[in-house]
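S.,

Sequence below, as promised.
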Amino acid sequence: MGVSVYSGFWYRYYFMRIIKRQYMRDMDVDIVPNGIIVNEHVHGFGVFDENFRFVKSSIQMRKNNGQFIPRFNHDDIPFVDKDVVFVGNVYPQFGHFLLEHMNRAWVFTMSEYKNAYVVLINNQDINPVPEYMYEFLRILGVPRERVIILNETTRFRNVFVPHQGFNIPVYSSDEFAKTFDRIAQNVENLEDVFDKVYLSRDALKERRTYGEKYIAKIFEKNGFHVVCPETLSLEKQVSIVKNCRVLAGCAGTALHLALFMKPGGTVIQIKRNRRCKDNAPIQHLINITKKLNGIFISGSIEKTPSSHYENVPQIIGLNKFMRKFFDENNFVYDNNLPNMDQSTWDEYTQKLAEYRSAHGNATSILLRQFLVRVSALFVSGRERRGAWRRWVKKKLHLT
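The prediction came back faster than expected:
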Protein backbone atom coordinates (compact mmCIF):
# COMPACT_ATOMS: atom_id res chain seq x y z
CA MET A 1 0.00 0.00 0.00
CA GLY A 2 1.68 3.16 -1.20
CA VAL A 3 1.16 6.75 -0.11
CA SER A 4 2.04 9.76 -2.28
CA VAL A 5 1.58 13.35 -1.12
CA TYR A 6 1.65 16.34 -3.48
CA SER A 7 1.88 19.31 -1.14
CA GLY A 8 4.15 21.73 0.66
CA PHE A 9 6.48 20.73 3.50
CA TRP A 10 4.26 21.65 6.46
CA TYR A 11 1.20 19.80 5.28
CA ARG A 12 3.25 16.72 4.44
CA TYR A 13 4.77 16.87 7.93
CA TYR A 14 1.34 17.22 9.55
CA PHE A 15 -0.11 14.32 7.56
CA MET A 16 2.80 11.89 7.93
CA ARG A 17 3.08 12.58 11.66
CA ILE A 18 -0.52 11.44 12.19
CA ILE A 19 -0.62 8.41 9.91
CA LYS A 20 2.56 6.83 11.28
CA ARG A 21 0.65 6.30 14.55
CA GLN A 22 -2.33 4.54 12.96
CA TYR A 23 -2.71 0.81 13.45
CA MET A 24 -4.99 -2.21 13.02
CA ARG A 25 -6.35 -4.11 16.02
CA ASP A 26 -8.37 -7.22 16.83
CA MET A 27 -12.07 -7.18 17.72
CA ASP A 28 -14.22 -9.02 20.23
CA VAL A 29 -17.84 -9.08 21.46
CA ASP A 30 -18.92 -8.62 25.08
CA ILE A 31 -22.10 -10.38 26.20
CA VAL A 32 -24.21 -8.60 28.83
CA PRO A 33 -27.09 -10.72 30.28
CA ASN A 34 -30.05 -8.55 31.34
CA GLY A 35 -28.16 -5.62 29.89
CA ILE A 36 -29.56 -2.09 30.04
CA ILE A 37 -29.19 0.20 27.04
CA VAL A 38 -29.45 3.73 28.36
CA ASN A 39 -30.71 6.72 26.41
CA GLU A 40 -30.52 9.88 28.47
CA HIS A 41 -30.53 11.99 25.29
CA VAL A 42 -28.24 15.05 25.73
CA HIS A 43 -27.00 13.58 29.03
CA GLY A 44 -25.41 10.54 27.38
CA PHE A 45 -25.99 6.93 26.38
CA GLY A 46 -24.38 3.50 26.66
CA VAL A 47 -24.76 -0.04 27.98
CA PHE A 48 -24.90 -1.08 31.65
CA ASP A 49 -24.97 -4.57 33.17
CA GLU A 50 -27.69 -5.87 35.46
CA ASN A 51 -25.81 -4.45 38.46
CA PHE A 52 -25.84 -0.97 36.88
CA ARG A 53 -22.14 -0.97 36.03
CA PHE A 54 -21.11 0.74 32.81
CA VAL A 55 -19.85 -1.58 30.06
CA LYS A 56 -16.65 0.15 28.94
CA SER A 57 -16.67 -1.36 25.45
CA SER A 58 -19.93 0.47 24.71
CA ILE A 59 -18.33 3.88 24.88
CA GLN A 60 -18.21 5.60 21.50
CA MET A 61 -14.66 6.81 21.00
CA ARG A 62 -13.20 9.37 18.61
CA LYS A 63 -9.47 9.50 19.16
CA ASN A 64 -9.27 9.65 22.99
CA ASN A 65 -12.70 11.22 23.56
CA GLY A 66 -15.86 9.32 24.43
CA GLN A 67 -19.48 10.30 24.91
CA PHE A 68 -20.77 11.41 28.29
CA ILE A 69 -21.53 8.40 30.53
CA PRO A 70 -25.07 8.95 31.82
CA ARG A 71 -26.73 8.72 35.18
CA PHE A 72 -30.22 7.28 35.04
CA ASN A 73 -33.17 6.20 37.13
CA HIS A 74 -32.74 2.54 38.10
CA ASP A 75 -36.44 2.03 38.84
CA ASP A 76 -39.21 0.84 36.51
CA ILE A 77 -36.97 0.16 33.50
CA PRO A 78 -39.01 -1.56 30.78
CA PHE A 79 -37.88 -5.06 29.76
CA VAL A 80 -37.84 -6.48 26.22
CA ASP A 81 -37.34 -10.25 25.93
CA LYS A 82 -34.96 -10.11 22.96
CA ASP A 83 -31.29 -10.61 22.19
CA VAL A 84 -29.97 -7.36 20.72
CA VAL A 85 -26.75 -5.96 19.33
CA PHE A 86 -25.79 -2.50 20.53
CA VAL A 87 -24.52 -0.71 17.42
CA GLY A 88 -24.48 2.97 18.40
CA ASN A 89 -26.67 5.98 17.84
CA VAL A 90 -28.66 7.57 15.04
CA TYR A 91 -26.68 10.21 13.18
CA PRO A 92 -27.80 12.46 10.31
CA GLN A 93 -24.52 12.71 8.36
CA PHE A 94 -23.72 9.87 5.96
CA GLY A 95 -19.92 9.88 6.17
CA HIS A 96 -19.82 9.85 9.97
CA PHE A 97 -22.62 7.29 9.98
CA LEU A 98 -20.41 4.90 7.97
CA LEU A 99 -17.30 5.40 10.07
CA GLU A 100 -18.60 6.01 13.59
CA HIS A 101 -22.12 4.63 13.77
CA MET A 102 -21.67 1.40 11.81
CA ASN A 103 -18.26 0.56 13.24
CA ARG A 104 -19.79 -2.25 15.32
CA ALA A 105 -21.93 -3.67 12.52
CA TRP A 106 -19.15 -6.09 11.55
CA VAL A 107 -20.77 -8.52 13.98
CA PHE A 108 -23.51 -9.19 11.38
CA THR A 109 -20.97 -10.87 9.12
CA MET A 110 -20.85 -13.64 11.77
CA SER A 111 -23.44 -16.41 11.56
CA GLU A 112 -24.13 -16.56 15.32
CA TYR A 113 -25.58 -13.05 15.31
CA LYS A 114 -27.60 -13.22 12.10
CA ASN A 115 -30.96 -13.34 13.93
CA ALA A 116 -30.21 -10.73 16.58
CA TYR A 117 -31.95 -7.36 16.66
CA VAL A 118 -30.07 -4.10 16.12
CA VAL A 119 -30.40 -1.24 18.61
CA LEU A 120 -29.66 2.31 17.46
CA ILE A 121 -30.08 4.93 20.17
CA ASN A 122 -31.94 8.05 19.06
CA ASN A 123 -30.30 10.33 21.62
CA GLN A 124 -30.61 13.42 19.40
CA ASP A 125 -34.35 12.82 18.81
CA ILE A 126 -33.90 12.81 15.04
CA ASN A 127 -37.19 12.50 13.18
CA PRO A 128 -37.41 10.96 10.69
CA VAL A 129 -34.50 8.58 11.04
CA PRO A 130 -32.40 8.83 7.84
CA GLU A 131 -33.47 6.17 5.37
CA TYR A 132 -29.88 5.28 4.47
CA MET A 133 -29.47 3.72 7.92
CA TYR A 134 -32.17 1.15 7.21
CA GLU A 135 -30.85 0.68 3.66
CA PHE A 136 -27.30 0.03 4.81
CA LEU A 137 -28.42 -2.56 7.34
CA ARG A 138 -30.83 -4.18 4.86
CA ILE A 139 -28.06 -4.73 2.32
CA LEU A 140 -25.83 -6.06 5.10
CA GLY A 141 -28.53 -8.63 5.87
CA VAL A 142 -30.52 -7.02 8.70
CA PRO A 143 -34.15 -6.41 7.67
CA ARG A 144 -35.99 -3.30 8.84
CA GLU A 145 -38.19 -5.25 11.24
CA ARG A 146 -35.09 -6.23 13.25
CA VAL A 147 -33.96 -2.62 13.73
CA ILE A 148 -34.95 -1.04 17.05
CA ILE A 149 -34.70 2.75 17.27
CA LEU A 150 -34.40 3.24 21.02
CA ASN A 151 -35.96 6.40 22.44
CA GLU A 152 -35.95 5.40 26.11
CA THR A 153 -33.77 3.41 28.49
CA THR A 154 -34.61 -0.31 28.17
CA ARG A 155 -33.42 -3.65 29.58
CA PHE A 156 -32.99 -6.61 27.20
CA ARG A 157 -32.55 -10.37 27.65
CA ASN A 158 -28.98 -10.22 26.29
CA VAL A 159 -27.06 -7.27 24.93
CA PHE A 160 -24.14 -8.02 22.63
CA VAL A 161 -21.56 -5.23 22.52
CA PRO A 162 -19.16 -5.58 19.59
CA HIS A 163 -15.96 -3.65 20.07
CA GLN A 164 -15.62 -0.49 18.01
CA GLY A 165 -13.99 -1.48 14.72
CA PHE A 166 -12.90 1.99 13.61
CA ASN A 167 -11.74 4.98 15.65
CA ILE A 168 -11.13 8.31 13.88
CA PRO A 169 -8.22 8.71 13.15
CA VAL A 170 -6.42 6.18 15.36
CA TYR A 171 -7.14 2.55 14.49
CA SER A 172 -9.17 0.21 12.32
CA SER A 173 -9.70 -3.54 12.01
CA ASP A 174 -10.10 -6.35 9.51
CA GLU A 175 -13.57 -6.96 10.95
CA PHE A 176 -14.63 -3.41 10.06
CA ALA A 177 -13.51 -4.05 6.47
CA LYS A 178 -15.63 -7.22 6.33
CA THR A 179 -18.80 -5.17 6.88
CA PHE A 180 -18.29 -3.38 3.58
CA ASP A 181 -17.04 -6.48 1.79
CA ARG A 182 -20.30 -8.21 2.69
CA ILE A 183 -22.38 -5.29 1.41
CA ALA A 184 -20.39 -5.17 -1.83
CA GLN A 185 -21.00 -8.91 -2.29
CA ASN A 186 -24.73 -8.47 -1.70
CA VAL A 187 -25.09 -5.69 -4.30
CA GLU A 188 -25.55 -6.68 -7.91
CA ASN A 189 -23.98 -4.72 -10.77
CA LEU A 190 -26.71 -2.11 -11.19
CA GLU A 191 -24.59 0.31 -13.24
CA ASP A 192 -22.01 0.05 -16.00
CA VAL A 193 -18.55 -0.98 -14.82
CA PHE A 194 -15.92 1.77 -14.91
CA ASP A 195 -12.23 1.23 -14.23
CA LYS A 196 -11.69 4.84 -13.11
CA VAL A 197 -14.31 6.96 -11.31
CA TYR A 198 -14.33 10.59 -10.21
CA LEU A 199 -16.82 11.43 -7.43
CA SER A 200 -17.98 15.03 -7.86
CA ARG A 201 -19.36 17.39 -5.19
CA ASP A 202 -21.17 19.40 -7.86
CA ALA A 203 -24.65 18.19 -6.85
CA LEU A 204 -24.25 19.16 -3.18
CA LYS A 205 -26.75 21.72 -1.95
CA GLU A 206 -24.26 23.12 0.56
CA ARG A 207 -20.47 23.47 0.73
CA ARG A 208 -19.84 22.83 -2.95
CA THR A 209 -16.24 23.24 -4.01
CA TYR A 210 -15.64 26.04 -6.51
CA GLY A 211 -13.40 25.09 -9.39
CA GLU A 212 -14.02 21.39 -9.02
CA LYS A 213 -15.92 21.18 -12.31
CA TYR A 214 -12.82 22.62 -13.99
CA ILE A 215 -10.59 19.89 -12.48
CA ALA A 216 -13.14 17.11 -12.98
CA LYS A 217 -13.15 17.82 -16.73
CA ILE A 218 -9.41 17.08 -16.85
CA PHE A 219 -10.00 13.77 -15.05
CA GLU A 220 -12.86 13.00 -17.44
CA LYS A 221 -10.64 13.64 -20.47
CA ASN A 222 -8.20 11.13 -19.01
CA GLY A 223 -10.63 8.25 -18.77
CA PHE A 224 -12.48 8.90 -15.51
CA HIS A 225 -16.26 8.49 -15.34
CA VAL A 226 -17.68 11.45 -13.37
CA VAL A 227 -20.43 10.62 -10.86
CA CYS A 228 -22.41 12.73 -8.38
CA PRO A 229 -23.07 10.14 -5.63
CA GLU A 230 -25.82 12.21 -3.97
CA THR A 231 -28.00 11.63 -7.05
CA LEU A 232 -27.81 7.82 -6.75
CA SER A 233 -29.21 5.22 -4.38
CA LEU A 234 -26.81 3.59 -1.93
CA GLU A 235 -26.89 0.36 -3.94
CA LYS A 236 -25.94 2.17 -7.15
CA GLN A 237 -23.10 3.97 -5.38
CA VAL A 238 -21.79 0.65 -4.08
CA SER A 239 -22.20 -0.96 -7.52
CA ILE A 240 -20.06 1.73 -9.16
CA VAL A 241 -17.34 1.90 -6.52
CA LYS A 242 -16.87 -1.82 -5.88
CA ASN A 243 -15.96 -2.37 -9.52
CA CYS A 244 -13.52 0.51 -10.04
CA ARG A 245 -9.76 0.29 -9.72
CA VAL A 246 -9.11 4.04 -9.24
CA LEU A 247 -11.39 6.36 -7.25
CA ALA A 248 -10.81 10.14 -7.25
CA GLY A 249 -12.46 13.24 -5.87
CA CYS A 250 -12.26 16.09 -3.40
CA ALA A 251 -11.79 15.39 0.29
CA GLY A 252 -15.07 14.52 1.97
CA THR A 253 -17.73 11.92 2.57
CA ALA A 254 -17.91 10.70 -1.03
CA LEU A 255 -14.42 9.19 -0.94
CA HIS A 256 -15.34 7.20 2.17
CA LEU A 257 -17.13 4.97 -0.35
CA ALA A 258 -13.65 3.53 -0.96
CA LEU A 259 -14.66 1.15 1.83
CA PHE A 260 -16.51 -0.81 -0.88
CA MET A 261 -13.47 -1.10 -3.19
CA LYS A 262 -11.41 -4.23 -3.74
CA PRO A 263 -7.90 -4.41 -2.24
CA GLY A 264 -5.11 -3.15 -4.47
CA GLY A 265 -7.02 -0.14 -5.84
CA THR A 266 -6.01 3.51 -5.61
CA VAL A 267 -7.76 6.51 -4.03
CA ILE A 268 -6.87 10.02 -5.24
CA GLN A 269 -7.96 12.71 -2.78
CA ILE A 270 -7.80 16.43 -3.59
CA LYS A 271 -7.37 18.66 -0.56
CA ARG A 272 -9.79 21.60 -0.83
CA ASN A 273 -8.51 23.82 1.98
CA ARG A 274 -5.18 25.54 2.65
CA ARG A 275 -4.79 25.01 6.39
CA CYS A 276 -3.23 21.74 7.47
CA LYS A 277 -6.25 20.33 9.29
CA ASP A 278 -8.32 18.13 7.00
CA ASN A 279 -9.70 14.60 6.79
CA ALA A 280 -6.77 13.02 4.91
CA PRO A 281 -5.67 10.98 7.98
CA ILE A 282 -9.21 9.55 8.14
CA GLN A 283 -9.12 8.68 4.44
CA HIS A 284 -5.70 7.08 4.89
CA LEU A 285 -7.10 4.92 7.71
CA ILE A 286 -9.88 3.82 5.35
CA ASN A 287 -7.26 3.05 2.70
CA ILE A 288 -5.17 0.83 4.98
CA THR A 289 -8.37 -0.86 6.18
CA LYS A 290 -9.13 -1.92 2.60
CA LYS A 291 -5.47 -2.27 1.48
CA LEU A 292 -5.67 0.60 -1.01
CA ASN A 293 -3.00 2.94 -2.33
CA GLY A 294 -3.47 6.62 -1.53
CA ILE A 295 -2.58 9.79 -3.43
CA PHE A 296 -3.17 13.09 -1.64
CA ILE A 297 -2.99 16.39 -3.55
CA SER A 298 -3.13 19.91 -2.12
CA GLY A 299 -5.48 21.53 -4.63
CA SER A 300 -6.65 24.66 -2.82
CA ILE A 301 -6.15 28.12 -4.32
CA GLU A 302 -8.43 29.88 -1.81
CA LYS A 303 -7.82 33.47 -0.70
CA THR A 304 -8.85 32.94 2.91
CA PRO A 305 -7.20 29.79 4.34
CA SER A 306 -9.76 27.43 5.83
CA SER A 307 -9.87 24.11 7.59
CA HIS A 308 -11.60 21.18 5.96
CA TYR A 309 -14.65 21.31 8.23
CA GLU A 310 -15.49 25.01 7.92
CA ASN A 311 -18.26 26.66 5.93
CA VAL A 312 -15.88 29.21 4.37
CA PRO A 313 -16.19 29.08 0.54
CA GLN A 314 -13.42 26.84 -0.83
CA ILE A 315 -11.88 26.70 -4.31
CA ILE A 316 -9.45 24.35 -6.04
CA GLY A 317 -7.52 24.82 -9.26
CA LEU A 318 -4.43 24.10 -11.31
CA ASN A 319 -1.84 25.04 -8.72
CA LYS A 320 1.70 23.68 -8.79
CA PHE A 321 0.77 20.54 -6.85
CA MET A 322 -2.08 19.65 -9.21
CA ARG A 323 0.17 20.22 -12.22
CA LYS A 324 2.91 18.05 -10.71
CA PHE A 325 0.43 15.23 -10.12
CA PHE A 326 -0.93 15.46 -13.67
CA ASP A 327 2.55 15.58 -15.18
CA GLU A 328 3.96 12.67 -13.17
CA ASN A 329 0.93 10.50 -13.91
CA ASN A 330 0.86 11.23 -17.66
CA PHE A 331 -2.45 13.12 -17.68
CA VAL A 332 -3.23 14.86 -20.93
CA TYR A 333 -4.12 18.52 -20.37
CA ASP A 334 -3.15 21.93 -21.63
CA ASN A 335 -0.26 23.03 -19.43
CA ASN A 336 -0.93 26.61 -20.50
CA LEU A 337 -4.38 26.60 -18.92
CA PRO A 338 -4.84 29.36 -16.31
CA ASN A 339 -5.09 28.52 -12.63
CA MET A 340 -8.85 29.07 -12.80
CA ASP A 341 -11.39 30.28 -15.33
CA GLN A 342 -12.47 33.85 -14.59
CA SER A 343 -16.21 33.24 -14.18
CA THR A 344 -15.65 30.61 -11.47
CA TRP A 345 -13.11 32.81 -9.71
CA ASP A 346 -15.57 35.74 -9.76
CA GLU A 347 -18.31 33.54 -8.29
CA TYR A 348 -15.98 32.33 -5.53
CA THR A 349 -14.89 35.90 -4.77
CA GLN A 350 -18.51 37.01 -4.48
CA LYS A 351 -19.43 34.12 -2.15
CA LEU A 352 -16.36 34.84 -0.03
CA ALA A 353 -17.38 38.51 0.26
CA GLU A 354 -20.89 37.45 1.32
CA TYR A 355 -19.42 35.07 3.91
CA ARG A 356 -17.16 37.78 5.34
CA SER A 357 -20.07 40.21 5.48
CA ALA A 358 -22.08 37.71 7.52
CA HIS A 359 -19.27 36.31 9.68
CA GLY A 360 -16.47 38.89 9.79
CA ASN A 361 -12.92 38.99 8.44
CA ALA A 362 -10.40 36.15 8.64
CA THR A 363 -8.73 37.40 11.84
CA SER A 364 -12.06 37.78 13.62
CA ILE A 365 -13.12 34.29 12.54
CA LEU A 366 -9.86 32.77 13.79
CA LEU A 367 -10.28 34.45 17.17
CA ARG A 368 -13.84 33.24 17.61
CA GLN A 369 -12.88 29.71 16.53
CA PHE A 370 -10.15 29.78 19.17
CA LEU A 371 -12.72 30.79 21.80
CA VAL A 372 -14.95 27.88 20.76
CA ARG A 373 -12.11 25.38 21.12
CA VAL A 374 -10.89 26.72 24.46
CA SER A 375 -14.36 26.92 26.01
CA ALA A 376 -15.11 23.34 24.93
CA LEU A 377 -12.13 22.07 26.95
CA PHE A 378 -14.15 22.66 30.11
CA VAL A 379 -17.14 20.57 28.98
CA SER A 380 -16.99 16.85 29.81
CA GLY A 381 -18.23 14.13 27.48
CA ARG A 382 -18.08 14.11 23.70
CA GLU A 383 -21.82 14.52 23.15
CA ARG A 384 -22.07 17.47 25.53
CA ARG A 385 -18.90 18.99 24.15
CA GLY A 386 -20.25 18.78 20.60
CA ALA A 387 -23.55 20.36 21.64
CA TRP A 388 -21.66 23.12 23.42
CA ARG A 389 -19.50 23.87 20.36
CA ARG A 390 -22.58 24.03 18.12
CA TRP A 391 -24.29 26.46 20.55
CA VAL A 392 -21.24 28.72 20.88
CA LYS A 393 -20.64 28.78 17.12
CA LYS A 394 -24.23 29.88 16.62
CA LYS A 395 -23.90 32.62 19.22
CA LEU A 396 -20.63 33.83 17.68
CA HIS A 397 -22.07 33.78 14.14
CA LEU A 398 -19.74 31.04 12.90
CA THR A 399 -22.50 28.91 11.32
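The chain has a mean pLDDT of 91.

Coffee later?
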